[in-house]
Design brief:
Strand content: under 5%
Number of domains: 1
Distance between the termini: 10 Å
Shape: globular
Oligomer: single chain
Radius of gyration: 12 Å
Number of helices: 5
CATH architecture: Orthogonal Bundle
Helix content: 55-70%
Order of helices and strands: HHHHH
CATH class: Mainly Alpha
Structural class: mainly alpha
Number of strands: 0
CATH topology: 434 Repressor (Amino-terminal Domain)
């Protein structure tokens, strides 16, 4: 899978774990609704580090905590 799909899956998982709405995440992370929809609908091919950092902040976690998931292993991510 590509990085954007992995990020979208991680967001979905964390929203459930933290009982949070996507709208609330957008507010807490300062990510525009259109940008979030592009991520969640996998219209983006890549997600910037800045965006991932904003997402982590929106979930009240560090970047490393956000990325600490099997989704982000080299076996699961296609870098091509």
């Amino acid at each position: 899978m590509n990085i954007c799909k992995a990020v979208a899956l991680r967001i979905s998982k964390l929203l459930i774990e933290k009982n949070m709405t996507l709208y609330r995440l957008e507010q807490k992370s300062n990510i525009l609704h259109g940008t979030m929809m592009c991520i969640m609908n996998e219209r983006n091919k890549n997600v910037t580090l800045k965006t991932v950092m904003q997402l982590a902040e929106g979930f009240d976690m560090t970047l490393l905590e956000f990325l600490d998931d099997k989704l982000f292993t080299k076996e699961n991510i296609n870098l091509e």
